[in-house]
Design goal:
With about 120 residues, the protein is mainly α. The chain has seven helices and no strands. The chain has one domain. The chain is about 55% helix and about 0% strand.
Length: about 120
């Protein structure tokens, strides 16, 4: 049974993105972020950074590694965020639940209607 503190901090898991084709996921994230207003896009990146820190990582620690010239998460373009999420999906799948929670919180994929179409890489 969860304590009151655990209940207040509990967040339901987001959609399962681990088995979505990484290139399609990158494009979908890029397109959705591009359609957002600048303020909401900045809030998305800040939320992703906060969740990454809670998981013991940071966005910044991955930027140079994968060739993104931004010096801090606030400088990321929608394409770079998509590229970063693609990298996590391929190389650091343990971070995908973090990404999924943020994507859910911002309703990046309304009703998850696109996800079944993208889940072509599912390994039974």
């Amino acid at each position: 049974m969860l304590t009151q503190l655990e209940q207040n901090n509990y967040q339901a898991p987001g959609p399962s993105l681990r088995w979505v084709d990484s290139n399609e996921l990158k494009g979908l994230v890029r397109d959705r972020l591009t359609a957002m207003g600048l303020q909401q896009r900045e809030e998305f990146v800040q939320a992703l950074e906060l969740e990454m820190r809670k998981a013991g990582s940071t966005l910044r620690s991955h930027l140079l590694l994968i060739g993104i010239p931004a010096k801090c998460p606030d400088e990321l373009t929608p394409n770079e965020v998509g590229h970063l999420i693609r990298y996590f999906n391929i190389s650091e799948p343990e971070l995908m639940p973090v990404v999924s929670r943020v994507i859910s919180r911002f309703s990046l994929f309304p009703e998850n209607d696109e996800l079944p179409q993208l889940a072509s890489g599912l390994i039974s």
